[in-house]
Specification:
With 198 residues, this protein is α+β, with helices and mostly antiparallel strands. Helix content is 21%, strand content 31%. Strands 1, 2, 3, 4, 5, 6, 7, 8, 9 and 10 form a 10-stranded mixed sheet that branches. β7 and β8 form a beta hairpin. The longest helix has 17 residues.
Amino acid sequence: MPAFCQSDDLAVGRLLVASRDLGDANFSKTVILLVHYKEGQGAVGLVLNKRTDVPISRVFHDLKEASGRSDPVYIGGPVELNSVLALLKSASKPQGAERVFGDVYLISNRDLLTQTLASRAEATVFHTYIGYAGWGSGQLEHEVELGAWHIMPADVGTVFHADPDSVWEHLIRRTETQIANVYQPPKSATNYSSASGY
């Protein structure tokens, strides 16, 4: 049976949804937003659904702009846990930011992060991440071909979800429903589905 998601669907602004049998503890039940991708040159993504209990004000205790902020920091992935990246939804492109999709931008330098904190960006449109997920050339494509990840377009509601713990379960169910619809043979009128609960 062909893979439902092909590696040629990979691009900046795509979501990677971990398959149920992905065994890597770093990525089990994760949803990752690809923020950098070039075929043959590797990929960088941010795990969207690993929220910590640590507030921004504690992580950036040296920045007065972060003072008093209680919104939590996220673990973006296992690579370079001393680095900080952020995602911001903004009607206009912040100078120095990189567009990921729609009006969602990646903030990857400290000055722009400080400016964003100073602007009092709401937690509903601004998330900070410690570390990131990274793949070398061909590595992510190989994992997709093995069925480790489902690929789908990103949307703002998923990226800034108020309950990140629920995101993976919701997306994996949606993916499995799509796969079932693609591969299901037509039902005859007398074949009642047990999936309806009756």
